[in-house]
Each structure stands twice: as C-alpha cells, then as structure tokens.
Design goal:
The protein has 115 residues and is mainly alpha-helical. 78% of the residues lie in helices and 5% in strands. The chain contains 4 helices and 2 strands; from the N terminus they run ββαααα. Helix 3 (38-75) packs antiparallel against helix 4 (79-114). It is elongated. The model is unreliable at 5-11 (pLDDT under 50).
C-alpha cells in the first residue's frame, strides 16, 4: 500500500516529511496493526486524507483551467475540442464526487477519534 503519495503530509499544525511517514509505514506494515486495529487505520488514513484532498483540488483547478482555455474554440464549432471538454468535465465531476467521499470519510474518522 502506498501511503500519502510519498509527499509531506500536513496534519493540523504539523507537517510530517514523507521519509518519516515511510519509516513509520514500514514499521506498521511489518505488523498487522493497520489491518486489524481500526483506530490505527483511522489515524493513518486521517493523516493521509488531507494530502489526497489537496492533490484532488490541484487536479480540479488544472482541469478547470484547461477547460477554460478550450471553451472559446469550442464555441466556434471545433468538434475535437468539444469532445475533450466533455472528457474534462466527466473527469472533473468524478473527482468532485471522490472529493466529497474523502471529506465524508475524514469526518467519520474524526468523529470516531473523538470518542
């Protein structure tokens, strides 16, 4: 399992460098804690979710920017660009749905951690 895309992970006020998360993950993966302990799994996922959300937001911005560049030519009737616009919209909408699922998952984890 790849953890947090091997990037720095922000959690609250702290930033955890990727190499430290990698060392931590290697230690956890040598045990069955992640699979068997829901609280450990929730904590690890909670640390990783903000990075996934940030990555998705960046992709959404990029797709929206590309869409906005293509839109004027599409209005002139360029069919290939119109098809690309449709693909971009479909991909962006899929990411919006994934984003909402990730946020919901994060909220559930936060509620379970409050207990």
């Amino acid at each position: 399992m790849k953890l947090c895309n091997n990037k720095k992970v922000e959690s609250g006020a702290k930033t955890v460098p990727a190499h430290r998360m990698e060392v931590f993950w290697r230690g956890i993966s040598n045990t069955d804690l992640y699979e068997t302990n829901e609280e450990v799994q929730n904590l690890i996922d909670w640390v990783c979710l903000p990075e996934q959300i940030k990555t998705n937001n960046n992709t959404i911005r990029s797709l929206t920017g590309e869409y906005e560049k293509i839109e004027p030519a599409c209005r002139e009737g360029v069919r290939a660009q119109l098809e690309r616009m449709k693909e971009l919209c479909k991909e962006r909408n899929g990411l919006y749905e994934k984003q909402n699922d990730l946020k919901e998952q994060k909220q559930k984890i936060e509620k379970s951690l409050e207990r």
